[in-house]
């Protein structure tokens, strides 16, 4: 019953007209007056922000805020994989031989997430990591490793919420939401950075130029809270012995090491 009601609510509110209205409001001058209250409600650390609160022209401008240089130091060790986002690590696990992952008790198809079985084959029996960004987080996405962009593509059109309730009750949120996938190649291996759009606002804007990426380099931004799924090839990633989930993490902090 709860699942049915929750899905009904999502279907009623997750439409193009509602997305358009919310996007227009968030980008409007009127929305600027809500920036201080938003910052207060979500306890935004204003000391980290590139600009003062009154300098943001709209809620959207504030959502995609940049940070002061140096406030997110990047771990420099070559074999260290760093967090691409400020987020909460919601789940970590193995990619099953059937190309599925188990997140919050639900099975998600990697083939659906990436758009083809061929793409999913690269990550069979590898590891996955789900990083959730709430509206309170810094919304810019950085490269978790140094490497080269092998391919980037976009799938999906509508989006269900990707918070804990969305993952539990939503309809294949990670595999069917609007999403942009970037595959990064390194040392004859690859990893996928799957940027999953949030409810209402399907906006994932790429910002990097060219194919080469430095670790910690900004690659895109979300216009609202959302989720990043990292997919690693088999035996490619070593994780700490124990990780207590959910675990808050920031851009540049260590996720694990490459084999």
From TrEMBL:
UniProt-listed Enzyme Commission number(s): 4.1.1.65
Entry keyword set: Cell membrane, Decarboxylase, Lipid biosynthesis, Lipid metabolism, Lyase, Membrane, Phospholipid biosynthesis, Phospholipid metabolism, Pyruvate, Zymogen
Pfam families cross-referenced by the UniProt entry: PS_Dcarbxylase (PF02666)
Pathway: Phospholipid metabolism; phosphatidylethanolamine biosynthesis; phosphatidylethanolamine from CDP-diacylglycerol: step 2/2; Lipid metabolism
Active site: 86, 142, 226
Mode of membrane association: Peripheral membrane protein
PTM characteristics: Is synthesized initially as an inactive proenzyme. Formation of the active enzyme involves a self-maturation process in which the active site pyruvoyl group is generated from an internal serine residue via an autocatalytic post-translational modification. Two non-identical subunits are generated from the proenzyme in this reaction, and the pyruvate is formed at the N-terminus of the alpha chain, which is derived from the carboxyl end of the proenzyme.
Residue(s) at site: Cleavage (non-hydrolytic): 225-226
Domain of life, source organism: Bacteria
Details of cofactor binding: Binds 1 pyruvoyl group covalently per subunit.
Catalytic activity, as annotated: a 1,2-diacyl-sn-glycero-3-phospho-L-serine + H(+) = a 1,2-diacyl-sn-glycero-3-phosphoethanolamine + CO2
NCBIfam families hit by this protein: PRK03140.1 (NF002853), PS_decarb (TIGR00163)
Subunit organization: Heterodimer of a large membrane-associated beta subunit and a small pyruvoyl-containing alpha subunit.
Family according to the record: Belongs to the phosphatidylserine decarboxylase family. PSD-B subfamily. Prokaryotic type I sub-subfamily.
Protein name stated in the entry: Phosphatidylserine decarboxylase proenzyme
